[in-house]
Amino acid sequence: MSITARSPLAAIQRAIYQRLNTDEGLGAAVYDQVPEDAPMPYVVLGEATETPDNWHGGIGRNSTHTLHVWSQQPTFDEANAVA
After folding, report:
1. Could you give the 3-state DSSP secondary structure of residue 61?
2. Per-residue model confidence as pLDDT tens for the chain (83 residues)
3. From the CB of residue 68, how many other CB atoms can be counted at a distance below 10 Å?
4. Which pLDDT does position 35 carry in this prediction?
5. Hey, how many other C-beta atoms are within 10 angstroms of the C-beta on 74?
6. What is the per-residue pLDDT for 1?
7. Are 82 and 28 in contact (CB under 8 A)?
8. Nearest Cα residue to 33 out of 18, 49, 46, 14
9. Three-state DSSP state, 34
10. Residue 2 and residue 73: Cα distance in Å, rounded?
11. Which terminus of the chain, N or C, has less C-beta within 10 A?
């Protein structure tokens, strides 16, 4: 019998979104799907990957989530401040 760990990706993405939208804020909106008229700067929840992280007697996953910061400034100052 094979046991597979449930994917945590959706739950992690929800937690990241909720954490980034706290009262402290980033100084930028956070989106999963960006509206066409969204003003910059903004953050987009990007790609997520997971790999098995099993061990003798247990199962698990390593998850990596990417965040993209978008800005129209010609330097990286604004994007770095948001990041």
Report:
1. strand
2. 566 667 788 899 999 998 888 767 778 999 989 999 999 999 999 999 998 888 888 888 889 999 999 999 999 999 999 88
3. 14
4. 95
5. 7
6. 54
7. yes
8. 46
9. coil
10. 51
11. N
- How far is residue 76 from each of residues 16, 48, 79, measured CA to CA in Å? 23, 24, 5
Give residue 49's identity as a one-letter amino acid code. T
Which amino acid, residue 23? D
- CA atoms 31, 70, 50, 12: torsion sign: negative
Structure tokens at 43: 């953050």
Residue 34: what pLDDT? 95
Smallest CA-to-CA distance from 83 within 40, 34, 27 is with 27
Question: What's residue 24's pLDDT?
Answer: 72
36 touches 45 (CB < 8 A): no
In this prediction the pTM is 0.77
